[in-house]
Amino acid sequence: MIDGLNKAFESRVRLGIMAVLVVNDWVDHAVLKDLLAVTDGNLASHLAALDALKYVQVRKRFVGKRPNTSYKATPAGAKAFRAHLDAIDQLLNKDLRQ
After folding, report:
1. If we measure between CA atoms, which residue out of 90, 48, 89, 52 comes closest to residue 69?
2. Total domain count for the chain?
3. Which segments in the chain show pLDDT lower than 50?
4. Is the residue at 18 inside a domain?
5. 98 falls within a domain
6. pLDDT tens-digit profile of 26-54?
7. Other residues' Cβ atoms within 10 Å of the Cβ of residue 67
8. What is the pTM of this model?
9. Rounded CA gap, 49 and 14, in Å?
10. Other CB atoms within 10 Å distance of the CB of residue 15
11. Residue 50 sits in a domain of what CATH number?
């Protein structure tokens, strides 16, 4: 019953990151940090794990004279996240009374 669940999204932080990124284009590191109420280090480690899986794309640039890092879900990441949500939905709707 749980084969469709993706281990990459077991963490509440990774689940939150992907939930934000699949419905937005590019999201700044500071915005993600505030939305998820996590530390810079905690967010960075979860983003690194998602980046290693090719689920997020990282963009580093300067806005004016300030460095800016932002992220977006890759097509593979969005697909994996939606499959994970579908698996949860199937679990929630599984009727065991037979």
Report:
1. 48
2. 1
3. none
4. yes
5. no
6. 999 999 999 999 999 999 999 999 999 99
7. 10
8. 0.90
9. 9
10. 19
11. 1.10.10.10
